[in-house]
Hints:
It is built from 6 helices and 3 strands. The chain has helices at about 15-35, 40-45, 55-85, 95-115, 125-135, 140-165, and strands at about 5, 10-15, 90-95.
Amino acid sequence: xxxxxxxxxxxxxxxxxxxxxxxxxxxxxxxxxxxxxxxxxxxxxxxxxxxxxxxxxxxxxxxxxxxxxxxxxxxxxxxxxxxxxxxxxxxxxxxxxxxxxxxxxxxxxxxxxxxxxxxxxxxxxxxxxxxxxxxxxxxxxxxxxxxxxxxxxxxxxxxxxxxxxxxx
Length: 168
């Protein structure tokens, strides 16, 4: 998928990949802007309390940092939207800073999807996907788990390409 290209990285995306990445990045932007709800488990996952045992301190910290963190997440998802072709297929070329934004945005998307899908650190996504396919191969869960697995593959590919660039 991603590969080194001089001082940056490049990947070729098909039309379906472009659609999925646009949808995922747009959903992160919407989550940060439309009715931001601290009781939403996804928001809790993306913005964990730094002081879980001290609610007043956590609230004060959030007061001073949350706006910048939200803006950062919006910018990172926007970096994906800005670089993707309007419709696939197409190549995406990223410099070091853009690649880091993509990496963080993909991570946010995976955290959000994993939370919605109720995946834990102990969950074997391959087993979950196999079970979902056996239960109902046309279910939205099968699609969502497939996207989650794809994002993991994409994240690993990007990270490996970035490491390859850094150690050149």
